[in-house]
Design a protein that fits this description.
This protein has helices spanning 33-48, 53-70, 84-92, 112-120, 141-147, 170-180, 199-202, 271-287, 289-309, 334-343, 366-380, and strands at residues 20-21, 78-81, 103-107, 127-131, 152-158, 183-187, 206-209, 222-226, 313-314, 327-330, 346-347, 349-351, 355-358. By secondary structure, it is an alpha/beta fold. Strand 6 (183-187), helix 7 and strand 7 form a beta-alpha-beta unit. Helix 2 runs parallel beside helix 8 (271-287). It binds pyridoxal-5'-phosphate.
C-alpha cells in the first residue's frame, strides 16, 4: 500500500466524486474554492462598480505572481493573457524578418495552434522549417538543434508534447538558439503543474501556457513570461492601451510602451478568468510541483503497466524521466471506446493518430487507474460499465 500524502487534497475537489477523473491534461478538475473566488469578483462588480478596478488590477499582478512562482520566474517577468494562441501571436509581432534572418524552427509534433500562428508569419516574410519526428512520440534534440542556425529568428517549442508527453531537452535547444542569436518560445501548457519548471535555468527567451489543464484554473487565464533583460528590447505590434506607459493619459497617436512587463499587455485584462484560476494556482503552489511529479511518475508507470498487460500500443515514452503528466495509448476502436468512457464519466480524450490520452494528477487514487482499464475491458467485450 502506498502512502499517498496528496490524496487529502481531494476534499478540495468535490467534483471528483462519482467520476474517474483522468483528463487533467485537457481540463483540470474544478476546485470548490473557485466558486468563492468568482463570487468575490462578482460582488466587487455589483457593489463597487467602476471602483472594482482597485481590486481587479492588483489581481492581475497577483495572478501573474502566482503563476510566476510555479515557473520559477523572477517577480515582474510574467503577465496574464487569455490563451497560448494570443500570446504566440503577440510574440510573433515582436520580430521583423530580413533576407538574412527569417527562419522559424519547430517540430511536427507542435500543438497545431502554435503552427497556425507561425505559418501565418510567412505572409510577413518568415520561412517556417518543420523538423520531423522519427517515431511520432519523440523529437530528436540534435535534429532540432541542427535546424537552428544564424538565419533563425524564433524556435517555438513545447516543453512536454501534447500528443505523447515527451519532455524536450529545452536547455540544449535554448543553448543552441542563444549561440546563434535566436529566441526559444517555450509552451509549458503540458509541463507546468506536473513537472518542475524553471524558465530562467532553461534559458528560454519567452514562455507561455494556460490554466485550463494541470493548473485546475479553467479557461481564459493564459500567461506570458519574458526573460528579464529582454523585456525592454521588443515593441510588439500586437498591442493596446494597457501596454502603454500611462494608459490613463490617453495620448495619441503612437504607442509609448511601458518599461515593465506590462508592455506585453494589449487591451483590458480578462479579470474574471483570473479569479476563476486563483484557487488552482494557490493549491499547486501549496503542494509544490516536486511532490506532484513524484506521484505522477509512480501513477503513469501504473498506467503503462496496464497498457502492456493488454498489449495496447504505447504512444508515450517508456522512460518515466522522459514522460510528463499524461500517457497516450492506442488500440483498434479506441475512439469509440473513449466516447463511451466519457459518457459513463470515466473522463479521458482521444486524438487522431495518437489514441486515448489519460493523466493522473495529485488528486488521483491508484484504484481509479485500475477501474479505468477495467471499464475499457468491459466496453470492449460488450458488457456495460457502472460505478460500484
Ligand atoms: C501544448 C499546448 N499548447 C497550447 C494549447 C492550447 O492553446 P490555446 O491556449 O491557444 O487554446 C494546448 C491545449 O489545448 C496544448 O496542449
Amino acid at each position: 500500500m502506498t502512502n499517498d500524502e496528496l490524496i487529502r487534497w481531494r476534499d478540495e475537489f468535490p467534483a471528483l466524486e462519482g467520476t474517474v477523473y483522468l483528463i487533467s491534461h485537457s481540463l483540470g478538475c474544478m476546485p470548490q474554492k473557485a466558486a468563492a473566488y468568482m463570487a468575490e469578483y462578482l460582488e466587487a462588480w455589483q457593489e463597487k462598480s467602476i471602483t472594482a478596478w482597485d481590486d481587479w488590477l492588483p489581481e492581475v499582478e497577483r495572478a501573474a505572481e502566482r503563476v510566476g512562482k510555479l515557473l520559477s520566474a523572477p517577480s515582474g517577468t510574467v503577465i496574464m493573457h487569455t490563451n497560448v494562441s494570443a500570446v504566440q501571436a503577440l510574440i510573433a509581432s515582436c520580430f521583423e524578418y530580413t533576407e538574412q534572418r527569417n527562419k522559424i524552427v519547430y517540430s511536427e509534433l507542435q500543438f497545431p495552434t502554435v503552427s497556425y500562428v507561425w505559418k501565418a508569419e510567412e505572409r510577413r516574410g518568415a520561412r517556417v522549417e518543420i523538423v520531423k519526428s522519427s517515431d511520432g512520440i519523440t523529437i530528436d534534440t540534435e535534429a532540432l538543434c541542427d535546424a537552428i542556425d544564424e538565419r533563425t529568428v524564433a524556435v517555438p517549442i513545447s516543453h512536454a508534447l501534447f500528443s505523447s508527453s515527451y519532455i524536450q531537452d529545452v536547455k540544449a535547444i535554448a543553448r543552441k538558439a542563444q549561440a546563434v542569436g535566436a529566441h526559444v518560445i517555450l509552451d509549458c501548457y503540458q509541463s507546468l503543474g506536473t513537472i518542475p519548471v524553471d524558465v530562467v535555468d532553461l534559458g528560454v527567451s519567452f514562455a507561455c501556457g494556460g490554466s485550463v489543464k494541470f493548473l485546475c484554473g479553467g479557461p481564459g487565464a493564459g500567461y506570458l513570461y519574458v526573460r528579464k533583460h529582454l523585456i525592454p528590447k521588443f515593441e510588439p505590434r500586437v498591442t493596446g492601451w494597457f501596454g502603454h506607459q500611462r494608459p490613463f493619459a490617453f495620448t495619441m497617436p503612437e504607442q509609448r510602451y511601458a518599461d515593465s512587463i506590462w508592455r506585453y499587455m494589449a487591451g483590458t485584462p480578462a479579470v474574471a478568468a483570473l479569479y476563476q484560476a486563483r484557487a488552482g494556482a494557490e493549491i499547486l503552489g501549496e503542494i509544490g510541483v516536486r511532490a506532484i511529479r513524484e506521484k505522477n511518475k509512480r501513477q503513469t508507470a501504473r498506467v503503462v503497466e496496464r497498457v502492456d498487460e493488454r498489449a495496447f500500443t504505447l504512444k508515450s515514452p517508456r522512460d518515466p524521466e522522459q514522460r510528463a503528466g499524461l500517457v497516450a495509448f492506442d488500440f483498434v476502436g479506441a475512439a469509440d471506446i473513449a466516447r463511451e468512457l466519457n459518457r459513463h464519466r470515466f473522463y479521458c480524450d482521444h486524438r487522431p493518430g495518437v489514441g486515448i490520452r489519460i493523466s493522473p494528477h495529485f488528486y488521483t487514487r491508484d484504484e481509479e487507474i485500475d477501474l479505468f482499464f477495467e471499464a475499457i475491458d468491459s466496453l470492449r467485450s460488450g458488457r456495460g460499465v457502472s460505478f460500484a
